[in-house]
Structure to design on (99 residues):
């Protein structure tokens, strides 16, 4: 899990789960997330079976993030590439942040 900001002025802050790192391939089919061709076991995430993403390589300097509440609308379903320069913290364990 990381906290990141948008490039907007003023920025918006999000906390989302990192799904894929630079150079990895992420895909979503029938709500199942695939990392480098293998399905991820995600007991923490709600499923949105209508959302799909063809196999996509994560470019250098970015991570691919997704919210865990994928069956709902709004910012919880936010997903996509985030430039690593916009990451401002990472969750080390519940309740502790490292800047």
């Amino acid at each position: 899990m990381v906290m990141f900001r948008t490039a907007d002025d003023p920025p918006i802050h999000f906390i989302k789960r990192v799904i894929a790192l630079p150079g990895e391939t992420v895909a979503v089919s029938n709500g199942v997330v695939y990392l480098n061709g293998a399905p991820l076991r995600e007991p923490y995430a709600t499923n949105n079976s209508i959302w799909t993403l063809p196999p996509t390589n994560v470019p250098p300097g970015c991570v691919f993030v997704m919210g865990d509440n994928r069956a709902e609308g709004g910012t919880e379903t936010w997903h996509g590439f985030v430039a690593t320069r916009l990451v401002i913290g990472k969750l080390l364990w519940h309740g502790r942040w490292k800047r």
Strands lie at 2-5, 13-20, 25-29, 32-35, 38-39, 53-57, 62-66, 79-83, 87-93, 96-98.
